[in-house]
Amino acid sequence: MNKLAYLGLAAALAAGPVLAQDDDTQVIGVSIPAATHGWAGGLNFHAQQTVERLEETYPQLDFVLATASGPAQQVNDIEDMVATRNIDALVVLPFESEPLTGPVAAVAERGTWVTVVDRGLSQEGIEDLYVAGDNAGFGRVSGQFFAGRLPEGGKIVVLRGIPTTIDNERVENFQAAIEGTGIEIIGMEHGNWNRDDAFTVMQDFLSRHPQIDAVWASDDDMAVGVLAAIRQSGREDIGFVLGGAGMKEMVKRVADGDAMVPADVTYPPGMIATAIEMTAVGLVSDAPVSGRFTIGSVLVTPENAAQFYYPDSPF
Question: Where are the domains of the chain?
Answer without folding.
Answer: 2-133+269-284, 135-265
